[in-house]
Amino acid sequence: MPILFLTNKIQAYAWGSHSTIAELQQRVFPTATPEAEMWLGAHPNAPSQANVNGGKASLDALIAEAPGSWLGPRAPEFQGRLPFLLKVLAAETPLSLQAHPNQEQARLGFEEDEARGIPKQDPRRRYQDANHKPELLCALTPFEALCGFRNIAETLALFRPLQIRSLAPTLQRLANNPTNAGLKECFTSLLQADTSTRIQLVEETLVACEKQSAVLGPHQKSYALSLKLHALYPHDIGILSQLLLNFVELSPGDAIYLPAGNLHAYVGGAGIEIMASSDNVLRGGLTPKPVHTEELLKILDFSPLAVSPIRGVPHGALEKVYPTPAKEFQLSQLELHEESWNGAVASAEIWLCTRGTAELRSGSHFQVLTQGQSAVVSADVARLGVRGNATLFRATLGR
Q: Of 46, 42, 62, which Cα lies nearest the Cα of 2?
């Protein structure tokens, strides 16, 4: 059974779309509840179900039964588990300001939460597992995101026309100390502001942003975003602190990579997301979910980040690969127009069709995918042929 059709769980988070995932899967929409993410993989919180002999089997259980057959020679490297999680993400409204820990931070934090006996659904719980969560998002539609701290000189230039009186001392300290440490002090003071200070800061910011959002300029969209966020999360400090982050716009086919410690938030749009198989998220605002300020400040990287879209690198005539340093995953996209692709399979792969129809074949084993459908391919396949008129995303282990 080297090629198996998958049925995948859809997560109904409040920020999700009532149409995007349903339309991809050619279902009736709008849906009754928001559909935020479709998970494709073997994460224990929502493993995909594979069609096996007329029934269904959980993908995590299948891989655990025969890790070598599924993952090939790299099975021991990942303790016999599928190390990546693929998602279709559909953000109708912005996600929380958040960051993910590195591997050591995740291990230590998870062990601490386990030792304290905190249940995974308890609001005090910080870490869901012991794994890190680098991730890549490739846009399916025009996509907006906040990603990493701005260059400090640019941040000061953004705030200058706002003239927020209550923020002036904080910005002056940053101007006097334009370093990572100065940026951390600035962000920390916002995150730890008491209620009355936070309300004053946010209200002054909103008045200033309303004026500046009507003025053409390089930061007009960032100012406008503060107004949008206030309508969703009144007086949340994230309305102000998001102005410290890069505002990024992606065209379909563009991608961004988010390493550990990178403060970010997806603002709106649909995309294909791939990550190390983890559910660790530490939030810093713009959410009704628990915010763990102290832990977030411990894991954040305050180095200003220069963000530019990642574009796929051609790999043969039909495939383009999105390069990242992650060993757990690699994402590529194939555009077929009544064409055939053939390639080696070294470990488990997940294939998702986002347009048209394609056939995946290895010897006598085959699976036809139409728009919105997916399949998993085991290392036992060795070589896979794909043909059709379709757009497909291929998730594999990193190089």
A: 62
Is the CB of residue 209 less than 8 Å from the CB of residue 162? yes
Assess contact for 299 and 99: CB atoms under 8 A: yes
Cα separations in angstroms, 148 against 3, 245, 261:
39, 5, 9
Other Cβ atoms less than 10 A from the Cβ of 217: the count is 12
Does the annotation mark 283 as catalytic? Answer: yes
Identify whether the C-beta of residue 142 lies closer than 8 Å to the C-beta of residue 150.
no
Q: For residues 321 and 255, is the Cβ–Cβ distance under 8 A?
A: no
Give every CB contact of residue 143 below 8 A, 6+ residues apart in sequence: 137, 249, 250, 254, 266, 268, 269, 270, 271
pLDDT tens for each residue of 173-221? 999 999 999 999 999 999 999 999 999 999 999 999 999 999 999 999 9
Q: Based on the number of CB atoms within 10 Å of its own CB, is 24 exposed (0-12), middle (13-18) or buried (19 or more)? A: buried
How many CA atoms are closer than 13 Å to the CA of 258, on its beta-carbon side? Answer: 29
pTM over 0.90: yes
CB 266 within 8 A of CB 89: yes
* Residue with token string 């949340």: 236
β-pairing verdict for 143-149 and 319-322 = unpaired
CA distance 20 to 395: 21
Which of these is catalytic: 126, 150, 198, 283? 283
